[in-house]
Amino acid sequence: MSRRSRRRKATGETRWLGKAAVGLLVLALLGLGVAYAALRSYLHSEAFRKFLSAEASGMAGVKGEFKPFTWDGLTVSTDSFEATGDGLVAAMRADGLHTEVGFGGLRRGVWEIRGSNIRRLDISLDATRPNAAEAPIEFKISKPKSSNSSAWLPRKAELQEFDVQSVAVKAILKQGLAVAGGMSVHAERVGGKDRYQGDIEGGQIRLPFAFLPELRLDRLHLRYQDDQVFLTQATVSAWETGRIEGTGEWDMNSSQLSLQGDARGMKCENLVNANWAKRLTGEAVSDFTLDNHSGQLMAGGTLTIHDGVLTALPILDSLAAYADTRRFRVMALNEVRTKWRWKAGEISLTELVLSSEGLARLEGSLSIRGETLDGVFRLGLAPGTLSNIPGAETDVFLPGERGLLWTTLRITGTLDDPKEDLTDRLIAAAGMRMFDVIPETGEKVIKFTRSVIGEPSKAVDQGMKIIDEGTKAVRGAGDILNGILGNEPEEPGKEER
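Structure (tokenized):
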């Protein structure tokens, strides 16, 4: 074959290959076009809306449905998603939904749900239901489609990221109603399979615990993987200047929860009742832990008060008068600390110390269950404080450490009507010391007057007067304990009617 013939043959083969390649490309493009049209047709169908409704329902453990879809290419909008459930999530409503469906996960058999945006999300939770822990929230649910669905269509939906402009939550807990609102949420898929991270910012939280104020949420950063939620950073504001920071985790399978952190910038008036808010100043700080590992929610930590000052207490004026010193009128506290624990509605204070250097010191523990009090303490006072009460500093108080006179103290009763055993012991000691015997003569006399009991009526009158004055002084001293528990102490010298 001549060179010219071979050249003509090669040219023909090249032209044929080119035409074949173009044909194959056209066929491929036609195939892609047909596939895209088929996919788009399915996306716009009622079947896809029901499929996404089932996926969203499974994600939250509820039964719900999207309103009709409005499509613009691969982006879709709907007015709302409404659902109810028998587990932890009792009801849910999402308004103003907008998202985009991507084909990037077709090879993995998933629909990619991208750039989802929700204008408002309302959630009602009920943790008191018996099956509340049986419907954990997940970020992706995988389940087969119905048998009449095309085999080549993805059977899973994978949420890539989403934003919620406003979230409101109402939760019925065993302790009462918890409410949160005004929060915004952003979450996105990161790293490997079923791993997400997100941020919750803004809003207010009200918990069903009387000792906690409304909390202002600054920011929560969370991470999810393997059915566990990790709180890696939390910053919350409380009262005017209080700031709470913490971390924690939640196992969705076992429902075990644990949190830890600290609270700073709290003023004493934020933590005590109205009677004490104007009398106790200082800054309180506390670390804390919160968990349900024992089967019920419990919290604990250590509380310390810095720069504490007691002032404007009527009983301090009484002590100042009894001790003939002004140091009790404004009492600077050099040490205030306690370990605290909350469980099943009971608050326990242990290793409690309240001290004014060289003046008074209270040590012990106190349990508050509902309104009931039960406390055991040691009370130390500077020598001379109760010298005007007969027997107080010899029969009731005894010398001890720190140069103070010490006695035991029991607190019972209720927050509104506390009882203490010190007053009766002081009165009994004062009564025993009203009479004495002159060693030289053996004559029985009224103490303080040295008068011989030769005129019974006058002696009794004078003795009763002394006992009455001593009892008033003791009652005044006993008011210290009522004041500590937040009750209004009687004004010094006020007569009983």
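The two ends are 140 Å apart (CA to CA). DSSP finds seven helices and 27 strands in the chain.
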